[in-house]
Write a structure and sequence with these properties.
The complex is a heterodimer of chains A (476) and B (147).
Chain A: E1 7-10, E2 13-16, E3 26-29, H1 32-37, H2 40-49, E4 59-66, E5 73-79, E6 86-87, E7 99-108, H3 109-114, H4 116-126, H5 141-150, H6 152-157, H7 185-191, E8 204-213, H8 216-222, E9 228-235, H9 238-258, E10 271-272, H10 276-310, E11 318-323, E12 325-334, E13 337-346, E14 349-350, E15 369-372, E16 380-385, H11 389-393, E17 396-397, H12 407-413, H13 416-425, E18 429-431, H14 435-440, H15 449-458, E19 462-475
Parallel strand pairs in A: 3-4, 18-19
Antiparallel strand pairs in A: 1-2, 2-3, 4-5, 5-13, 6-10, 7-9, 7-11, 8-9, 8-19, 12-13, 14-17, 15-16, 16-19
Helix pairs in contact in A: 4-10, 5-10, 7-9, 9-10
Chain B: E1 12-17, E2 22-28, H1 31-46, E3 56-63, H2 67-85, E4 87-97, E5 100-109, H3 112-115, E6 123-124, E7 130-135, E8 138-146
Classes of the chains: A alpha+beta (476), B alpha+beta (147).
Chain lengths: 476, 147
């Protein structure tokens, strides 16, 4: 990306001043080399977002930003409904409420390693992963509606999870404002046998060791101890979210063309928040958020059962569950006053700072846990929201490393077998139904997650709490 | 599936790069043939179409305001049929009348062992979406699919 036209705000913040159709500036977070390495499309897409009606303060890109659908992946933008603000399906993405949850296993690395192969086999057997895999749960019409309204609460009421999990899930496990009447028959049909499934692509279930602690006080409050292990799950709203994303993206784009709106990018299509289409999308999208929260709760439950078979008294309390593809109404400062804004986070993690009402009580002094996934051989991170993140990007942080290589190139560079063997040599067991899928998701196909995390911290978006190293990885 | 130099209008199903996802491109002498090839390219994102037995045909109907949305609808309809029928398709036939499409996708039940599917496709997108007759007798239909 050409940074010559950008204003350097700090070592990790670069501003594109508002010009032309832009209503607000665009701000890209990241060190100079990360920003230079970003695709030119990121700045183009971010400038397009900055031109949308009702946008507040600025359009932001996180240090892991890359070319997305209308919005860049790693994009954050907030809109004021009273100022003609809009909602965009592209600003949320196809995998609505894709996110990460982390359970504390309270088991040492040695204990996991003593049964590592058996453990990996059992997790792989019990957690449906990859194309063509299905859940043992089938949802009929009434249960589907109950799930779309109840999210993780629904899952727990059905015996898939524990009530105490809810306070460690954003929105207490249930997104308000969901409207199942706006979820199509096709979306319901696609989801009917997918509850509690991982999916494929970059989704995973991992057992990870706490390899390094950066903030001892926060780590202690989070329950993170060096040498102990974490269970981490990365997935989203499965077929239902994909179908909702597809249908509303189409409807918004067709409405834009029919209305004669000139959009620089068709997937930037949007609907005014105060419109029938905007209201319908919000109702459906919130159902998809509930679907993702229920899905991750069920997978957590399935994984707990596996742990219980191998380790007596393993409870696996939930550290936190947070999404990175959402649009939510949140109070934020804008123009010297607090407004209710519609905050789009596409490939960006909510990162509330210390004291925020959305942070669970025991964690409040330290900020909300921000869970950042790696890619098989690479590290994952636990961060914590900061007070200054509110002013930086509406309390948002990065979500992962981001790809640096296409799937084709990864296939040319590696075979799945080679990756599995290489990681095995480093003590990491990878289980996947697809060798080709493993090759496409090779760790080397991703950017250096460490550089992304350092830039996130330096920019004040979130602070480092702990680094996690993979031991077992179940890939779709 | 890289494109090789071919005579105009010859059938080609190819891929093109996109940051995190992948583009599918169909080329053929007619609009319909280009749509068929784009669907075949989408299958090839998951598995080698040559390994798919053509056992069962599924009818697909789409209706869209223009040819580009029709392509996205066609690919998304295939994704929906794959997801809900547990099938994978290796052959496609398309008829287009104005803004209406009638298609037939033929394939078999997906087998993890035999098809070794690389990835599940979430949806066909409007990114890099183009349906165009590049030169007389050579149609191109393409878009990025989200994986």
């Amino acid at each position: 990306m050409d940074i010559s036209q950008m204003e350097k705000l700090s070592e990790t913040a670069w501003q594109i001043p508002a010009s032309g159709a832009m209503r607000v500036p665009a701000i890209i977070y990241g060190g100079e080399s990360l920003v230079r390495d970003m695709d030119e499309k990121v700045s183009e897409q971010l400038r397009n977002v900055a031109a949308l009606p009702g946008i507040v303060r600025a359009a932001y890109a996180m240090p892991d930003a890359h070319w997305g659908y209308g919005f860049p992946v790693g994009g954050v933008a907030a809109f004021d409904a009273d100022e003609g603000g809009v909602i965009s399906a592209g600003g949320v993405g196809f995998d609505v409420s894709c996110g990460v949850r982390a359970h504390l296993t309270q088991l040492t690395r040695d204990r996991i390693m003593s049964v590592q192969a058996k453990h990996a086999d059992a997790l792989y057997r019990e957690i449906p992963a990859g194309l063509g895999s299905h859940s043992t749960i089938t949802l009929g019409e009434a249960e589907m509606t109950a799930m779309l309204l109840g999210g993780a609460r629904w899952a727990i009421e059905r015996g898939y999870g524990r009530p105490e999990d809810l306070e460690r899930i954003e929105e207490d496990g249930c997104m308000p404002g969901a409207d199942p009447a706006e979820v199509s028959d096709q979306a319901r049909k696609r989801q009917s046998r997918e509850m509690g499934t991982l999916g494929s692509g970059n989704h995973y279930l991992e057992v990870q060791e706490v390899a390094e602690i950066f903030d001892h006080a926060a780590a202690s409050a989070f329950g993170l101890k060096k040498g102990e292990c974490i269970l981490s799950i990365h997935c989203g709203s499965r077929g239902l979210g994909h179908q909702i994303g597809t249908e509303f993206m189409r409807e918004m784009a067709i409405a834009a063309e029919a209305g004669g709106w000139t959009l620089p990018d068709r997937e930037l299509a949007y609907a005014p928040i105060k419109s029938d289409l905007g209201r319908r999308y919000l109702g459906a999208m919130r159902c998809a958020i509930n679907c993702a929260l229920a899905n991750r709760e069920i997978i957590g439950h399935l994984a707990r059962r596996v742990f219980a078979q191998l380790f007596m008294h393993a409870e696996l309390p939930l550290l936190f569950d947070v999404s990175h593809n959402t649009c939510k109404i949140e109070p934020h400062l804008a123009g010297g006053r607090t407004c209710q804004l519609y905050v789009h986070r596409k490939g960006a993690t909510r990162a509330f700072g210390p004291g925020h009402p959305g942070v669970p009580e025991p964690l409040k002094p330290f900020g909300q846990p921000v869970l950042i996934g790696g890619s098989m051989g690479t590290a994952s991170y636990v961060l914590a929201g900061t007070a200054e993140s509110e002013a930086r990007a509406f309390s948002s942080a990065c979500h992962g490393a981001g790809r640096q290589m296409s799937r084709h190139q990864a296939l040319k560079n590696w075979s799945g077998r080679q990756i599995v063997d290489e990681l095995s040599g480093r003590g990491i067991i990878v289980k996947s139904p697809s060798q080709r899928g493993v090759a496409e998701e090779a760790p080397g196909a991703y950017k250096d997650v460490g550089a992304v995390i350092d830039a996130t911290e330096a920019a004040g978006l979130a602070k480092k709490v702990a680094k996690l190293a993979p031991m077992i990885c179940i890939k779709g | 599936m890289d494109a090789k130099p071919e005579s105009p209008g010859s059938l080609r199903a190819t891929h093109f790069s996109h940051d995190a996802d992948i583009g599918v491109r169909g080329i053929g002498p007619t609009l319909e043939a280009a749509f068929e090839q784009a669907a075949l390219a989408m299958t090839a994102v998951m598995t080698d179409p040559a390994n798919i037995e053509l056992k069962e045909a599924v009818q697909i109907e789409c209706d869209a305001p223009n040819a580009e949305f029709l392509l996205v609808d066609w690919l998304n309809a295939i994704i929906f049929e794959m997801a809900t029928r547990d099938m994978i398709f290796g052959d496609f036939k398309v008829g287009i009348d104005g803004h209406r499409l009638h298609g037939i996708a033929t394939g078999e039940a997906i087998s993890v062992e035999r098809h070794n599917p690389a990835v599940e496709i979430k949806g066909a997108t409007l990114t890099e979406l183009t349906v165009v007759e590049d030169r007389p007798g050579e149609w191109r239909a393409q878009c990025v699919v989200d994986v």
